[in-house]
Amino acid sequence: MLNDSCCRKDDLEKAVIGTYARETRPRSPVEKGLGDFFRFLSGIEDPYRSWRLQGIIDLSEEQLDLAKRRLANEISSERITAHINPVIITGKADAEKAAAYLGLGVQALPV
Fold it and tell me: Between 4-24 and 61-76, two packed helices, what is the crossing angle to 10 degrees?
């Protein structure tokens, strides 16, 4: 019979391999363009992406447990709503209506 630690380590290894493969798989030009657009909206630059991939490779069981505890604490507190940044992609008139409803301003993106 396998112990829980063995199975957990195996599951973690499979998750790391799957996540890394999903992040580094070849993409079509449309997927690349859409990904670049979302990274532009989010302010994510290439050094962060490299750091993130290295973090996926180096992930340990202890880090995963710590992240689970932090996420559980965030979800159970009111702090999570302070990190929400709505993004609405629409025409100017609809954007102004949505921004007024949310109490925000409209930011036109270069296209």
Answer: 80
Q: The domain containing residue 110 runs over which residues? A: 85-111
Three-state secondary-structure class, residue 42? helix
Say whether both 61 and 99 belong to one domain.
no
Same-domain check for residues 71 and 96: no
Residue 18: CA count within 13 A, CB half-sphere? 6
| pLDDT above 50 (res 2) | no
Q: How far is Cα 50 from Cα 54, in angstroms, rounded to an integer? A: 6
Q: What is the largest CA-CA distance in the chain?
A: 63
Measure the CA–CA gap between 88 and 106, rounded to whole angstroms.
Answer: 9
Mean pLDDT value of segment 16-24: 90
Mean pLDDT of the chain: 81
- In DSSP notation, 53-75 reads HHHHHT--HHHHHHHHHHHHHHH
